[in-house]
Amino acid sequence: MKTSIKKEDFIESISDALQFISYYHSEDFILSMREAYEKETSIPAKDAMLQILTSSKMSALGHRPICQDTGIVIAFIEVGMNVEWESDLSIEDMVNEGVKRAYSNQDNPLRPSMVSDPAGKRQNTKDNTPAITHVKLIKGNKVSISISAKGGGSENKAQFITLNPSDSIVDWVLKVIPEMGAGWCPPGVIGIGIGGSSEKAMLMAKESLMLPIDIHSLVKRGAKNKTEELRIELYNKINQLGIGAQGFGGLTTVLDVKIIDYPCHASSLPVALIPNCAATRHTHFTLDGSGPAHFKIPDLSLWPKDTWAAQKEAKRINLDSIDKKSIEEWKEGDLLLLSGKLLTARDGAHKKIADLFKKGEALPVGVNLKNKFIYYVGPVDAVRNEVIGPAGPTTASRMDQFMEMMLAELGIMGTIGKAERGESAVQTIKKYQSVYLSAVGGAAYLVSKAITSSKVVAFPELGMEAIYEFEVKDMPVMVSIDAHGKSIYSEAPSRWKNKSIPLKASS
């Protein structure tokens, strides 16, 4: 029997799905993260997970993005061969129209991150199109859509290798996970594709991230094949690495390991690995010709009763009067609450500053970086009575190449971002007795509530990459690299290695 799918139903469903996943975590993720939080004994990791869960519930109630990086849209679409379309657009064009509507929604505008001319001018497309769309024809008379909004921090950590058939997949995964660092914002889900060809393995890894988190039920019933055995082994061994939430050290680095496999050539073993961050945004729906899709709102009782609040050990810091002597006393792992003025700058702004510096030109009028803290962030636009939209940190290591200039020539006091810095940046921080502070990736809405005023002070043409001046009140951060070069990202995993208790099937 033929089914007719209307253009407007399809576009509306894509748009509604992207809005829905921008502020609702899936129930399986909430339950899994809650369980990880409740068993965690690392104080920094537990604090980070509660920030993520608290921010998640705030996003659900406020219908604002879970993360300021509202992602690159990826759609896997299966079209029944008995489907007829009432549309003058291609499937890809309809997906892109849905993306445009979702990302320009006036009640909840989402940050556009897609740039055209990627090897050249890298100009923002302004509406987050185009999406990455994969279409498959299958039997039947329905259209099945799995759609995600994938953040850049986790996407940038994707890995691929062609192993020899006798090589160990486990050994390779355990080698690359520490090398990936914390820029993918653990704890999250690791997706793995095994077999096929290079492109097939990557697609399977990406598609596996849309499967439900079910590792505990798998362990309870027991593995039935080699792939399920591999999932359990990798889940246990990755968590025993001790990387922990945000790389702060702890019991949980991954909430699940998903695997899809496919036959491959006898002489090769393609393996792809793609992580999904703590803002794991995806959903699945089916169109049968009866109208647009509807989405089930998560039960608010699933979130923990605990709500994040500053720990009593946290030190309150006035950014407007801080000096070098004071920050030299901070130690790796210290929790801080920042108040006062700070400036934002990320990739685009750093590049513009470097270009001006090379030409011997001055910074824009009103921009003084000396003795300032720089927050690596690209916020979401404000709506209604907001000062700023969700404003969580971006991956700091992308700015490592500019650290000598920013510290030696422009005199900044310190930096705020997420995840580890490269060794050269660590040594530069130590050389100038600077400091690097971490905000929690995945807690963007919570962080934004600490921002009491915001204004663009330079490079407005860069959009979310412009330089803002924020006034903050009790913004939560942690000292990740102190003025002596001691880094929690190198210290903490060794403290927590092999402390996670492996999951075992109940007898």
Structure description:
The chain is 31% helix and 24% strand. By secondary structure, the chain is an alpha/beta fold. It has a 5-stranded mixed beta barrel with strand order 14-15-16-17-19. The longest helix has 20 residues.
Secondary structure tally: strands? 19
Q: What is the CATH architecture annotation of the largest domain?
A: Alpha-Beta Barrel
CATH topology name of the largest domain: fumarase
Per DSSP, what share of the residues sits in E-state strands of 2 or more residues? 15-25%
Question: Summary?
Answer:
The chain is an alpha/beta fold and 507 residues long. Helix content is 31%, strand content 24%.
Keywords:
fumarase; 507 residues; alpha/beta; globular; 5-stranded mixed β-barrel
Write the layout of secondary structure elements.
Layout: E1 3-6, H1 7-23, H2 27-39, H3 43-62, E2 72-80, E3 83-86, H4 91-103, E4 115-116, E5 123-124, E6 132-138, E7 143-150, H5 152-155, E8 159-163, H6 169-180, E9 188-196, H7 198-208, H8 215-221, H9 226-239, E10 254-264, E11 269-276, E12 282-287, E13 315-318, H10 324-327, E14 335-344, H11 347-359, E15 373-375, H12 403-409, E16 414-417, H13 423-431, E17 436-438, H14 444-448, E18 451-458, E19 467-481, H15 488-496
